[in-house]
Design brief:
The protein is α+β, with helices and mostly antiparallel strands. It has helices spanning about 20-30, 75-80, 140-145, 165-175, 185-210, 215-230, 240-245, 250-260, 265-280, 290-295, 300-315, 315-329; strands at about 20, 35-40, 50-55, 60-65, 70-75, 85-95, 100, 105-110, 115-120, 125, 130-140. The protein contains 12 helices and 11 strands. Helix content is about 45%, strand content about 20%. It folds into 2 domains: about 20-210, Jelly Rolls (Sandwich); about 210-329, Arc Repressor Mutant, subunit A. Helix 4 (about 165-175) runs antiparallel to helix 5 (about 185-210) and helix 7 packs across helix 8 (about 250-260). It is elongated and about 70 Å long. The longest helix is centred in the middle third of the chain and has 26 residues, at about 185-210. The model is unreliable at about 1-15 (pLDDT under 50). The strands form 2 sheets. It has a 6-stranded antiparallel beta sheet, with helices on both faces. Strands 2-5-10-7-8 form a 5-stranded antiparallel beta sheet.
Amino acid sequence: MQRDVFMSNQLKLSSNPIIGIDRFSDSVNQAFCPMNCESVSDIRARNFQGQLVSNTLNKMHIARISSSALDVNRSKQHISEVSGCGYYLVKFQMKGEGIVQQCGREAHLRQGDFVICSSSEPYKLLLPTDYYQAVLTIPQTMLQDIFHSPDDYLGIRMNSQFPIHGILSQFMFSLTQRLDLLEPEIIHRLEANILDLLITSLRSEEKVTRVLPDNSVELHLQRIKRYIELNFKDPGLSPEDIAKAVNISKRYLHKLFKEEGTSVSTYIKKNRLDACRRALVNPELQHLKTIDIALDNGFGDVSHFHRCFKAEFEMTPRQFRIKHLAILS
């Protein structure tokens, strides 16, 4: 049997281009674990190009990997070829898009998103165009000792628009861009920082998902509502954007809200109105005009904002502000 992943404790591969799918596949298998890599590019396989730089932290490993379009498959046969403890691979999509399939789930990764995979379970990774990923590899026992159930999050997309996920992703991007420039002792010290950010990220996700089944209606609604709450200030936010972001159809999106007795547009409007209401009664924001508050919170049409606000609160924004600031004074 082969030894488990990361056969060299101080593996560092050249950042020079790797030419050909076979050479690239050998480098990936050496750096991570046995898997099958196939070029999906229209060009011939021998013209395939990739790069892979990997380095050791303390107990974890970090890699920067990019290549032409690629399909990756880690099968049960591959898993049987290794011995020892498994690893979690945290895959950060830094350029292009990727689709990760594991444990019956599918995560569609866009720039900044990440997903957790387990080397102990089969998975597929589809990279339809040129891409760049940062990959953090953590011994399973190490992560399980400090977080109770990492396996519950396998194959779930961690959206970079959720603040803590975005912070971790940006940190990994900065680190991997400088991976071959940093001194080894500096890289080693960063392990605790990365782990702390990852655990914080998982705990934040836990509060939202409560580890519900991935096809749960409640889970879908929670993710949709969180996405809206993070993006309602965008005046162009649409059902199409939301459905794409949470990997569901637009029809299913509307169905979920209809079953709650409301609509997607009503929920977006409610978030915008609540944000405007809070701003209007905030003494520190008295210098802002009503029109500025409306525009800052996603209302592209001021007349529409006034109509919506009066219908919701039974007074104009100006009347509402005067009344509530007088109460506070």
